[in-house]
Amino acid sequence: AVVSTQSTGVEDVEGTEEEEGWDVVVSSEVVEHVPCITSFVGECAKRVKPGGGLMFTTINRTMTSWALAIIAAENIAGYVPPGTHDYHKLVPPQVLTGAIRDCGFEIETIVGMRFNPLTRQWSKTSDLSVNYAVTARKIG
């Protein structure tokens, strides 16, 4: 199998290697920074071929995520520069999954992601209150 990756704005991806679209589009830790979630998800979705997949990872908008992802990660631990995240642009799962469904996709999984600062390792969790991932399959 051939894997192609691009680090670019989704709107800058003109064509695909196959006319019908990409097998999968992955957007990791991006959606919480875009001006319009529905437009961004739509741009990602239209590049996926029928039966193909979408995957998004992002940060939920909760008081827990504010404390851990903004206060602790940005301002205390310095994992990312202060001001990287705006609490009001963080994305509740129902907003993201709604935008994905509106584009003709079926949600397959929603899983929480937990970072352990001592081991600097990520693990899956059922807790969606901070980081989470969504996978979906294009219907048709």
Q: Give me the count of strands.
A: 5
Element order, helices and strands?
EHEHHEEE
Instruction: Extract low-pLDDT stretches.
Output: none
Helix fraction, binned, reads: 10-25%
Task: Tell the overall outline.
Answer: globular
Provide the residue-averaged pLDDT. 92
Distance between the termini: 23 Å
How is the main sheet built? 5 strands, mixed
> How much beta, percentage-wise?
25-35%
Structural class: alpha+beta
Radius of gyration: 16 Å
Summed up, the helix count is: 3
Strand neighbour order, sheet with most strands: 1-2-5-3-4
Can you walk through the features of this model?
The chain is of the alpha+beta class. 24% of the residues lie in helices and 31% in strands. It contains 3 helices and 5 strands; from the N terminus they run βαβααβββ. The protein has helices spanning 37-45, 63-76, 93-102; strands at 22-28, 48-59, 105-116, 121-125, 131-138. Strands 1-2-5-3-4 form a 5-stranded mixed sheet. Strand 3 and strand 4 form a beta hairpin. The longest helix has 14 residues, at 63-76. It is globular and about 45 Å long. The chain starts with 21 loop residues before the first strand and ends with a strand. The model has no long low-confidence stretch (mean pLDDT 92).
